[in-house]
Amino acid sequence: MYIGVSESRFRTYTEEENIDAKAVIRFPAIPESVPKARRNITGHLEELGLENDLVDRVRLGLTEAVANAVAHAYRDGEAGDVEVLVFVHPETLVVIVEDTGSGPLPHPDGTGLGMGLPLMSVVSDKLEIEGERDRGTTVRMTFDLPGLPGDNDTCGDREGLGTR
Hints:
The chain is α+β, with helices and mostly antiparallel strands. It has three helices and six strands; from the N terminus they run ββααββαββ. The protein has a six-stranded antiparallel beta sheet with strand order 1-2-3-4-6-5, covered by helices on one side. The longest helix is centred in the middle third of the chain and has 21 residues.
C-alpha cells in the first residue's frame, strides 16, 4: 500500500483539476485491504474535524465500494489494484474508488445480497458509477459539506452543519 499522488483516469474530471487530493491510497484488490482502506481514509477524515455522523456515512459507503471492487473487479485469479481518492471542495467531500478490472458487470459466482449499491446511494448525497467492460469501474460518492473548521465562510455557528 502507498499514499501519494497517482496518475489515474479520474483526473479527467474537470472539477478536480487544480485541486489536490486530501488522501490517495492504492492497495491490492484482496479482502484484507478493505479494513486497511477504511482505517486509512477514516483517519484522514477525522483529521479534517468532520462530524462523526458524516465520517460514519463516508466510512460505510467507502467500505461497500472497496468491497465491491475487491469482489468483482478482477476475475479468475487476476491480480489488480484498487485506488481510493478523497477530495475536499468548498461545499462537498468527494470519495472516488477506482479499479482497472472487468468493468461494472455482475459477477456470475457472486454470493452477495446485492445491497452495496443501494447502501452507497443512501449514505451519499450523490452516487455516480462509470465503467467499461475490461477497462474498470469508477465509483464516485459525493457528500454535502457546508464547511470545514478554519474556512473563511459566512456560516457563523457550525453546530450541526457537518463539522465538529
